[in-house]
UniProtKB/TrEMBL annotation:
Record-annotated membrane-spanning stretches: 165-185, 197-215, 222-240, 279-304, 316-340
Protein name: CDP-alcohol phosphatidyltransferase
Ranges where the record places region Disordered: 1-138
Pro residues: bias regions: 106-116
Organism: Streptomyces kebangsaanensis
Length: 705
């Protein structure tokens, strides 16, 4: 017996048979059970019942059971349609008869036929339907990735694979817990990344779990989100500390160091291109947002698990807490790391202490800067033993102790220093050298410059702003104040406004765009040192003048990433710098060495050799009997080159032809030549100004605090 399908009805038409063919009018008399036709919907009596209600479409109705379809009574012709006939009755299992064995095979169901039109109505012509093209692939992908679509798809998958769904849910919870624990134990220095550092029990996790267990659901979610965001912020700060310790040898200062992020982007633009710098900036922002979101979701996930399994979670928490207290009492350690960890609490205290120290330092340093041993010294009593000398204060970028003592870099650098010492000696110049401990490391050259020139320890941006906005006497200002010298600055690294020129006491400053250079940039360095020194000679030092010159010169060719490194050309061919185009094009690219510590060391050593060679050749070519050179490094190179835990010492040399100049510093104990001995005296860089002024006859006249 064929199973009945749903019948499609419309107002004013009769129902279709089980095969979709309109049934014949029923004959009078009883019909057999097997061939009884389906009841047809009578025509509506519009005069009595009003408009008729359209029958429910067939696809929205459940198939009627065969037994009930056979037992359905034949409707009267003049009766109003019973709404119950249009509903799908509940099937009754015991009403279904057993099919007869000799029943003829079921015919295939025919396609449903459209209802017959009324006789008095003209058939409406069928409108051709145009094929609707499928949406483009990107649109289909976006629709599939909608949150609602993803949730629905995941629920369908859960229903089809319950065991797999449980395993996946547990795996996600375990991953969330691991992320939380790793964030709580994350060090802020590369050298602390050891397996033992992540095998500890963080007390912060135990306290957080206890809090989440006692909170009701809504409060638990809110607290979990806030705690996750806070943990994400601490994670970002720890990651930032890692990079700052790598490049600057110190942690990130949450008050003072934000503007250095802009400097970092400028460095990337100069080194690897503007597109890379913009992509890096976008990537950093996305990474920060991702860390915050992932940590918040992870804590919420763990909190939800604890809330669903409070009894087992409480037992486990008590067990781990007891283990933490036992390890803390016995001071159990693994590879020097205590198993009972308080790392996050310690880091919070460390940052809070840093903020308080920064605020206190701002007040204290302002008082220190006002107390100047030579602040009220008249110009006539400043550096009388150097009158008539052309003074040149030169910084070589990133020229640190590692260049002279590192086994990879030292052989080439030391050979260059020894050759340069001999070259200067042939020209009648001699040198003495010692060590100065810089206030900065790996970068922040302006901090080293201001420390050396002002006699103050300027190791952060706030101190730099304080000292440069005041009237602290600098070395170049001391020469200008005498009225016996003109002062000039050669600043190839300055590419924007530089108001510090006034504080340094410079009558004139030449920045990167004012020296006539038409050659290529060498990565961050705007021009080779040889060109900058030639510009000094052409623009100022080589001119006839009524007064000697006190110059402040910054040489930048040894600035990271040390690729490509310039090469020396004949001084007569320097011209406008175009001669360096071929050298730059053939040089090493930054991307080739920036992740390779060994090659970085090699190229850094080459850059220092180049800078020192250019300077000593300039002295040999252009210096005269009254030229005095003070040359030093501003800081050590980054840890990738100088090594972990490297000192902050930089070489400092004084070069002169007049023997009386070096006799004045004979009691300093400095080494002869351009290479300071390993055991030569080491002073803090801020002590040099007062020692120098005193050595050359200046009389102290302190200002009050």
């Amino acid at each position: 017996m064929p199973q009945h399908t749903s019948t499609r009805q419309s107002s004013g038409t009769t129902g279709a048979s089980e095969h979709g063919v309109p049934p014949s009018p029923p004959e009078a008399g009883p019909t057999s059970h097997e061939d009884k036709p389906e009841p047809t919907a009578p025509k509506a009596d519009t005069s009595a019942a009003g408009p008729t209600k359209s029958a429910e479409p067939a696809e929205h109705r459940s198939p009627e059971p065969e037994a009930e379809a056979k037992a359905a009574p034949k409707p009267k012709a003049d009766a109003a349609p019973d709404p119950a006939e249009h509903r799908s009755p509940e099937p009754e299992a015991d009403a279904a008869p057993e099919p007869k064995a000799d029943t003829t095979p079921e015919p295939e169901p025919a396609e449903p036929q459209p209802p017959k039109p009324k006789a008095d109505a003209a058939p409406e012509p069928a409108e051709p339907t145009a094929a609707v093209p499928p949406p483009p692939l990107p649109l289909r992908v976006l629709r599939a990735l909608r949150p609602r679509a993803v949730r629905q798809g995941f629920r369908r998958w859960q229903g089809a694979h319950p065991a797999g769904a449980r395993v996946l849910s547990l795996a996600v919870t375990v991953l969330a817990l691991l992320l939380v624990v790793v964030a709580l134990l994350l060090p802020n220095k590369w050298e602390q990344f050891e397996v033992a550092a992540f095998t500890r029990i963080p007390v912060e996790a135990l306290l957080g779990a206890a809090l989440l267990l006692v909170l009701p659901r809504r409060a638990r979610v809110v607290v979990a989100v806030l705690g996750g965001v806070a943990l994400g912020v601490l994670t970002v700060l720890n990651l930032t500390d890692i990079e700052f310790n790598e490049y600057l040898g110190r942690s990130f200062n949450v008050i003072l160091d934000w503007q250095l992020l802009d400097d970092a982007q400028s460095y990337l633009a100069d080194t690897l291109g503007g597109t890379v710098a913009r992509l890096a900036a976008v990537g950093v922002v996305l990474l920060v947002l991702a860390v915050l979101a992932v940590m918040a979701l992870s804590v919420v996930r763990v909190g939800g698990f604890l809330g669903r399994h409070k009894t087992r979670s409480t037992r486990g928490l008590l067990l781990v807490s007891a283990l933490w207290m036992l390890c803390s009492t016995l001071d159990v350690q693994v590879s020097g790391f205590p198993v009972a960890s308080e790392h996050t609490v310690t880091m919070i205290k460390y940052r809070e202490k840093g903020v308080r120290a920064t605020l206190q330092d701002e007040r204290d340093f302002a008082r220190t800067a006002r107390a100047d041993a030579f602040g009220d010294t008249p110009g006539s009593q400043l550096v009388p033993d150097l009158r008539g000398k052309d003074m040149i204060f030169t910084f070589i970028e990133s020229y640190g102790r590692s260049a002279i003592e590192d086994p990879i870099m030292a052989p080439g650098v030391n050979e260059t220093l020894d050759v340069s010492t001999q070259t200067l000696a042939k020209a009648g110049f001699h040198a003495k050298s010692g060590w100065l401990t810089s206030a900065t490391y790996g970068g922040g050259s302006w901090l080293g410059h201001s420390t050396f020139m002002s006699g103050l320890w300027v190791d952060n941006q706030n101190r730099y702003r304080t000292v440069t906005s005041g009237d602290r006497l600098t070395l170049t200002e001391a020469f200008r104040k005498t009225g016996a010298w003109d002062t000039v600055g050669i600043m190839p690294g300055v590419q924007k406004g530089w108001p510090e020129a006034k504080w340094y006491g410079l009558d004139k400053v030449y920045n990167a765009f004012q020296m006539g250079y038409q050659g290529p940039k060498f990565s961050w360095s705007t021009m080779p040192d040889q060109y900058a020194l030639e510009a000094l000679q052409r623009l100022e030092h080589g001119k006839k003048r009524d007064k000697p010159l006190a110059s402040f010169v910054i040489l930048t060719s040894s600035h990271q990433p040390w690729a490509p490194v310039p090469e020396m050309v004949d001084w007569d061919e320097v011209g406008d710098g175009s001669v360096f185009r071929g050298i730059e094009a053939a040089g090493t690219r930054p991307a080739d060495i920036i992740t390779d510590p060994t090659r970085s060391r090699e190229e850094y050593g080459r850059s220092v050799q180049y800078s020192m060679t250019a300077l000593t050749e300039w002295m040999e070519r252009y210096a005269h009997d009254d030229t005095v050179l003070v040359v030093l490094g501003d800081h050590q190179p980054v840890a990738r080159v100088s090594g972990e835990n490297a000192s902050r010492d930089v070489p400092c040399s004084i070069v002169a032809k007049d023997p009386k100049v070096l006799e004045k510093i004979a009691d300093w104990g400095w080494s002869d030549g351009l290479r300071p001995a390993h055991d030569a005296p080491v002073w803090r860089m801020n002590s040099f100004r007062d020692r120098f002024l005193t050595a050359y006859g200046s009389t102290p006249h302190p200002t009050g605090s």
